[in-house]
Design goal:
Distance between the termini of chain A: 36 Å
Number of helices of chain A: 12
Shape of chain A: globular
Mean pLDDT of chain A: 88
Strand content of chain A: 25-35%
Low-confidence stretches of chain A: none
Oligomer: homodimer
Largest interface: A-B, 40 and 40 residues
Strand order of the largest sheet of chain A: 3-6-2-1-9-11-12-10
Largest sheet of chain A: 8 strands, mixed
Chain lengths: 400, 400
């Protein structure tokens, strides 16, 4: 069996944790399996490097930021390989160049295009444990790229897909996927199995256990995922196409407090308006989350959308440079918001879910700024300060 | 003009120093020159990484150590490129892969075999400032290698040679090459110009200003070197083939206190004996410095040689595994030694130099353990505790 195991930054935060990871890897290896290990940078390394860059200047070159950040992952793989080698196991660490992890050229938010398998397969054929840097890639210009925060999950799933691995295990510091963040909602329950689609909504809604692109990719290539703890023996959560467990109405609640809303008020009601705006934002590498368009006054349109707070400045620059040309009457920015969402494959069949959600907000005097719905989720924007209260209220309301 | 500028670890130790380096680089660039900058890891980064590795295990895999250490240089080049980019100059950082810095596969002590110039030239043609990682290379297996301590000097000279640069400037924290280490001999004088050969002896004898392999390479390819301070405007020391300044009898005094001596006593007097011993050591990547062979008792030979203290364990392992087969009667190890040397192109013409050196030791009651001479240097091994005294005494004796 070929198993890909991904360990996050907290799982390799210090020497003791690295030795713990080495033991987990050896268990799988000595059971006769081939193992590819994907690692993130240790603990706060990425944050420390970002801080260092910001000491140099306020907005560092994105290409050079990737050059800098990728060193964190390379340190992790070297240290784990040392530990495994010292324990007597054949092991080799590989960075994105050595693997051939080809991505787009969008520094900081690159997307994987192709993973070369020649070297990976050669090392596996020699029965080497292969330890690969997560998060990092190489553009067609041979420049180093990174996949954005949480990108190591994507690396792991992509390698599992490229090699046709039997299983991709995502090790983290929690025991699996919960119905809500247990730090916020103390009586949250661990989910035994969840479908790709439900996980996708949960992941993209700020349940930080799995990176959403990794779930998309797992779904696309049918990679079976297990989310489990690197510190305990708990069985974790299985993510796959069909879940045999009984469908719950609501499978989880997610909260994210890093949300900025931008409202463009009084845009002309003309074809191509949305295209102009969102293609300009895409060119500036601004990732937009929720988009809502509604009728404004005097035959105009109001367009609201959300971005993460780190992208707000880039978005502002694009909008301020273009708003006159676009004929926008006014722009309103708000970055003191949180997005709270309920997710569940059973939701579509029950018309009362949305009103039940809004009722929970009303009961707690929480004002709703924006509502967005899909077949398996409902998201609302509320003031950041009420996020925890809202999540607890929803958890109780839906008896998770 | 094409100028290669190398800045050592202390020159890029913190944000302020990096911004200082950026200013120095810009001065050269805005004067109309093309600039390639070669950097070491920041300050104590390499030592910190080695410490981290040793927390994992006592003797980490050398391949993985190179994977780990090379991240230090990559961080430096990214940070300097950010600074230059922020100042408005076109710049690109490149690591050993991106340049194509091909080395042997001896991890930790690799030697440069070839430097690809395609990407370097392409970036220079675009008038980019190119910032390259020193110290690091790539083996034919696409594994990361390092050139050993001080290897960044070698990287700089090799790039200067490969690109046919007009000048290679080695920036450091002292103002040039001195007649002795000014921290040990306070009245040491800065040398204005010195020949490759003299510099070579000084460098290999522990004057830590320039890495000896960099001087060898500069000599081989006729690269003109300047050693100067990154913190002051002093003119520095020129290293080139012909020195127009008047030849001094003795150009410098060097001391090194990281020396271990190994004596193999009573080896059979047979052909191939030295070959067997030193080829076994070379296979274990032990770099031997001084070798002395003398007559022993009963038609045997005594062979003594020195290694740096870090290599002593590796050397011991080789010797203990082979000494019976080699017919060695006894082995003696001593690592409390220092090597003190006097260097000068004028030395060969003056028979009194050696006796003057030994007299200075006698005057200071310093016992000499071993003597080794060449045409332009004399080295002695003495007890480590007397190194400073010996260097001062020699400096006074030869009126430098």
């Amino acid at each position: 069996m070929l198993v890909v195991q991904k360990f996050g930054g907290s799982s390799v935060a210090n020497t003791e944790r690295i030795l713990n990871v080495a033991n987990r890897v050896v268990e799988t290896y000595t059971a006769g399996h081939n193992v590819v290990v994907v690692l993130s940078a240790q603990g706060d390394t990425t944050d420390d490097l970002i801080k260092k860059a910001h000491e140099i200047c306020d907005s560092p070159s994105k290409r050079e930021m990737d050059m800098l950040l990728s060193t964190g992952e390379q340190q992790s793989v070297a240290l784990l390989a040392m530990a495994l080698s010292n324990m007597g196991y054949p092991v080799v660490s590989l960075n994105a160049y050595q693997v051939g992890m080809i991505t787009t050229s969008s520094h900081g938010i690159a997307r994987l295009k192709e993973i070369k398998t020649t070297r990976l397969n050669r090392e596996l054929e020699r029965r080497n444990i292969v330890v690969v840097t997560g998060f990092c890639g190489i553009s067609k210009f041979e420049d180093i790229t990174t996949l954005g925060r949480g990108g190591s999950d994507t690396t792991a799933v992509a390698i599992a897909a490229a090699l046709g691995a039997d299983l991709c295990e995502i090790y983290t510091d929690v025991e699996g996927v919960y119905t809500a963040d247990p730090r916020i909602v103390p009586n949250a329950q661990k989910i035994e199995a969840i479908s790709y689609n439900e996980m996708l909504e949960l992941a993209s809604l700020g349940a930080k256990v799995l990176h959403n692109r990794s779930v998309e990719m797992a779904k696309k290539y049918g990679v079976e995922l297990v989310v489990r703890s690197s510190l305990t023996r708990a069985t974790g959560t299985i993510v796959k196409e069909e879940c045999k467990v009984e469908k719950m109405l609501i499978s989880g609640i997610a909260g994210e407090d890093d949300v900025a809303r931008i409202s463009l008020i009084g845009a002309p009601d003309a074809p191509g308006q949305a295209f102009k705006i969102f293609s300009a934002l895409a060119k500036a590498d601004v990732v937009v989350d929720i988009i809502i368009q509604s009728m404004g006054q005097n035959n105009t349109r109001d367009i609201s959308f959300t971005v993460d707070c780190a992208s707000l400045n880039d978005a502002k620059n694009v909008i301020e440079a273009n708003k006159e040309r676009w004929g926008i009457a006014a722009v309103d920015y708000n970055q003191d918001l949180a997005k709270v969402s309920i997710v569940g494959a059973g939701m579509v069949a029950d018309a009362g879910i949305a009103s039940k959600m809004f009722e929970a907000m009303y009961d707690n005097h929480i004002n709703i700024h924006l509502i967005s719905t899909s077949e398996i989720k409902i998201s609302i924007l509320i003031d950041k300060d009420y996020m925890k209260t809202a999540m607890k209220a929803l958890h109780d309301k839906f008896c998770l």
